[in-house]
Amino acid sequence: MDLGIAGRRAIVCAASKGLGRGCAMSLAREGVAVTIAARTPGPLEQTADDIRTATGSQVTTVCADVTTEAGREALLASCPDPDILVNNAGGPPPGNFRDWDRDDWMAALNANMLTPIELIKRTVDGMIERRFGRIVNITSGAVKAPIPILGLSNGARSGLTGFIAGLARETVQHNVTINNLLPGIFDTDRLVGIIQGAVEAQGITVDQARAARRATIPAGRFGDPEEFGEACAYLCSRQAGFMTGQNVLIDGGAYPGTY
């Protein structure tokens, strides 16, 4: 299927690896010029080279921490008028809420709620003027089924979800959609951190922890970032213009609910 977005411009945050990389690769395959951001230059430039080689699309890199004002300024200076914005940030560390102080909560809210909102604020009006915009926020399956050790993520991402629910209904009349893509357990660095938390909390081995997590997924495997990227690309497509304010779960069937 031709997604109808060749020639568009996209910003993809936290795109040097994992789910962000998957999204950038899939968009580039569709002919989108992608600006990818991450904090570490080596992996960022390697990813850019990989995407260029695989797709032939234009790739611009911005080495910056977009949770800071300076980082956002650098990103938007490089791509001031994106047609597509993919908000993404590494999740806060797992733990027990009794051990977290206000600074821990503020860091989680800044990265996983306030920064996406700020980037939307800076880009959405241009999308409205051009009569095309696609915003995808990578949140978490924990928004629908909270994970006890991920309380910081549960709270911050749910806050973003609530905000998007209102805004997405205001922008869609201008062909600007805003949706959230909710990953379950994907084979990324984030999984490594979760597994390590289980190892320390339960006194088990890494293999045992991985097997236990895998057993909770009806698909019998962890997700592949490439398939996540393809779902993101569809949400950014011309064909997805009637879809907004949705929380799209991609978790191999792990969520047990009907709705």
Features:
259 residues, alpha/beta, 7-stranded parallel sheet, 8 helices, 47% helix, 14% strand
Overview of this structure, please?
The chain contains eight helices and seven strands, in the order βαβαβαβαβαβαααβ. The model has no long low-confidence stretch (mean pLDDT 95). It has helices spanning 18-29, 41-55, 69-78, 102-130, 151-171, 189-202, 206-214, 225-235; strands at residues 9-12, 33-38, 59-63, 84-87, 133-138, 176-183, 247-250. The longest helix has 29 residues, at 102-130. The chain has a seven-stranded parallel β-sheet, with helices on both faces. The two termini are 28 Å apart. The chain is α/β, with parallel strands linked by helices and 259 residues long.
Write the layout of secondary structure elements.
Layout: E1 9-12, H1 18-29, E2 33-38, H2 41-55, E3 59-63, H3 69-78, E4 84-87, H4 102-130, E5 133-138, H5 151-171, E6 176-183, H6 189-202, H7 206-214, H8 225-235, E7 247-250
Parallel strand pairs: 1-2, 1-4, 2-3, 4-5, 5-6, 6-7
Helix pairs in contact: 1-2, 1-8, 4-5, 6-7
